[in-house]
Design a protein that fits this description.
The chain has 138 residues and is α+β, with helices and mostly antiparallel strands. Helices cover 42% and strands 16% of the residues.
Length: 138
């Protein structure tokens, strides 16, 4: 199922819950990420009111605006990043927005690539990326 169709279906269900006073609105934001065979990588964000939009990069949660600002500053460069640069950028975004230095045991990351299965990064992989980040400026 294409991620766009799934996002639309979830948004439709959320929107139905906003129409009746007796139904409690769903109160979470859903970020869907997938690699489409025809369109490549896609990100959709669905809000509780039933709106869904495609994004190039997005964030959700308590520090959403700070994270969005961080992502927008590098949006033009992101398209040219390879896998390792993208992983490091994501870690740098977390560190910058949360004002924290992370250990490899505190980060869980899932990598999606075209024609490959989703893969969780090991602690060693995360530690390698953290070390490279510590040595360079992103």
């Amino acid at each position: 199922m294409p991620v766009a169709a799934l996002a639309k279906r979830i948004a439709d269900v959320c929107q139905v819950y906003t129409q009746k006073a007796s139904l409690r609105a769903l109160a979470s934001i859903c970020i869907l990420v997938a690699v489409d065979d025809e369109k490549g990588p896609q990100i959709f964000k669905v809000d509780p009111a039933g709106h869904y939009f495609p994004y190039f990069a997005t964030a959700a949660g308590a520090k959403e605006s700070e994270a969005t600002n961080f992502l927008e500053k590098k949006a033009d460069e992101l398209g040219s990043y390879d896998k390792d640069q993208t992983i490091r950028f994501a870690i740098a975004a977390l560190q910058s927005v949360l004002s924290a230095d992370f250990k490899s045991t505190e980060i869980e990351a899932l990598v999606l690539e075209k024609n490959e299965r989703a893969k969780y990064l090991t602690e060693e992989d995360v530690d390698h990326h953290l070390n490279v980040l510590a040595e360079t400026d992103l």
